[in-house]
TrEMBL record:
It comes from the Eukaryota. Residues 189-256 form the Pre-C2HC domain. This is Nucleic-acid-binding protein from transposon X-element. Residues 318-330 have a biased composition (Basic residues). It comes from Araneus ventricosus (Orbweaver spider). Residues 63-83, 316-336 are annotated as: Disordered. InterPro entries: Pre_C2HC_dom. Signal peptide: none annotated.
Amino acid sequence: MRTNQLQMAESLWILSLDMVEDRRLNNSKISNNPAIYIGPQTIQNANGTLDDGFQFQRQRQKHKRNLSGTTPIAKKPNMDNPPTIELKNKYNGLKNQIDRLTNPNIPPVVMKRTENYKLVLNRIIDVQKIKCRAKPTGEFFYMYCESEKDHRSLTEYLDTESLEYYVIASQAEKPTKVVIHGLDVDSSCDDIREELTRKNYRVDKVHQFKKFRTKKLIPVFQVHLLPTENLKEIYKIDTLLHMIVTIEPYQRKSIGQCFHCQAFSHVASKCKMIVKCVICAEQHDSRVCPPKNIENPTKKCANCGGPHTASYRGCPKFPKKKKQRSKKRILLCSSS
């Protein structure tokens, strides 16, 4: 009997020691949190206020995840009395303005400035009722028409009044120019035309290049091609007239010059200006110029009046081709 009592007392003693050890371990874990002060004697109120000014950290409320797949409906604002916001657009004044070109596919008509140009413009727009607008540029007026009918009426009126003008050809009207390398220097331009025509190309013109100073023929040919379905296939041709050739797109190195009036940026077929000679600046064709066959003819520029031909590239009126700006190199240095 006594032995059983001793065993029960020993068990209770061990149990009490375990409870004390568990309480000590729990107190040490909680006391590691610097935001919470643990001590039963410091709690004064049930709302978590301590006597030394500390407060217990309240546990955040956990939001349950929406697993139903439905989107919660947002609350709509009260639109019974919506606020009035005044909107201002600073570009409203541009609404009634017309673009510079109503139809960019219609090429402009370039009319030469005259002394009574104001009267001419009034007759074109007010009397003839031709819908166009003029933009002065140097000694010319660029006339932009709103339709093809107005463009045709304007050119007919200028022809009737014998006024000088020229038309800048549109991209659709311009032929595609290619250069053929590899043919013999004695190759005929007619043979090249016939060969390309058999290959279903529309050839407008074939021209053989010459050296600039000696005027000697060189084995390089320029071909003007009109639009066709197989136009892009021209660069794949590697044999022509039984010779190995290379066909490349023509790249002009300078601004084009009219052979009719010696002005620039247009062609003779679209020019209605007064004819001028490239050698002596007189009003006749350059091909029938009398001083042409003379050893040292008297030269006069049709553009600046200087003692040189109108095709002289050193002429102050000769336009310079703008060079493309090269992109500056940007050196990326590693930060130290």
